[in-house]
Amino acid sequence: MKQKIMDASIHLFDENGFKSTSIKDIVDYIGVTKGTFYYYFTSKEELLKDIHLDYIEDLINKQEEILVDSSINCTNKLFEIVYMLIKNIRTNRRSARIFIREIRHLSEVNGEEIRDKRNRFRENIQLLLETGIKNGELKAGCRADILTFGILGMTNWGYYWFNPNGEVSAKKLAEIYVDLILNGINKSKYTIG
Predict the structure, then answer these.
(1) Is residue 135 within 8 Å of residue 91, measured between CB atoms?
(2) Three-state secondary structure along 128-164?
(3) Is residue 111 located within the same domain as residue 67?
């Protein structure tokens, strides 16, 4: 029942927003009582925190499986992480949009654990890029911190526009993104000024 409440809430929070969705809306949607809700969650905010935790912990686990794979280099690990994030759109689009959009509704205490895990995911990518720069796979002088934010911006925005059933597959989009990250779009060296 707990998962059923979470699934219904993910649907309603995505459709209507966290603030506009009441506990009554959630229990009415699945046909249970408020008592059932309160058996599993002390508040709507606790429910939102659990949705956030489930989402980010799953991503971190998948990311860390890629990162510990010693059979692939940094460039391929970057591709696998980008591909994992894009593939995730098919199954977790609603959760991702809630994760990106609704964290502002968590109190400082409830949001702290989520922010720590977000930072861990981001720092893992940054460390991967720094390793690639250090070992010569990636261009020296790159700002791994800024590049990390760019990668996350590209992939996170996909939860709003990418259609996994459209003409571009998740794998092809990951290839396009990683090619853009690694090679850019200019045929010749661009100079500022």
Answers:
(1) no
(2) HHHHHHHCCCCCCCCCHHHHHHHHHHHHHHHHHHCCC
(3) yes
Question: What pLDDT score was predicted for residue 186?
Answer: 74
**Domain assignment of residue 190, yes or no:** no
Structural domain of 34:
1-41
Q: Quick check: is 188 in a domain?
A: no
Q: Give me the pLDDT at residue 7, please.
A: 95
- Degrees, nearest 5: CA angle 152-154-156: 60
185 φ/ψ angles, rounded to the nearest 5 degrees: -125, -5
Q: Using CA atoms, how far apart are residues 174 and 13, in angstroms rounded to an integer? A: 28
CATH code of 167's domain:
1.10.357.10
Residues 93 and 172 in one domain: yes
CB within 8 Å of 49: residues ≥ 6 apart? 106, 110, 111, 113, 114
The label of the residue with tokens 């059933």 reads 165
pLDDT along the chain (193 residues), means of 10: 94 94 95 94 94 95 96 95 92 88 89 93 97 92 93 90 91 92 75 60
Give pLDDT, residue 26: 96
Type of residue at 122: R
Tell me the whole-structure pTM to 2 decimals.
0.87
**Same domain for 4 and 98:** no
Shared domain check, 27 and 78: no
130 belongs to a structural domain: yes
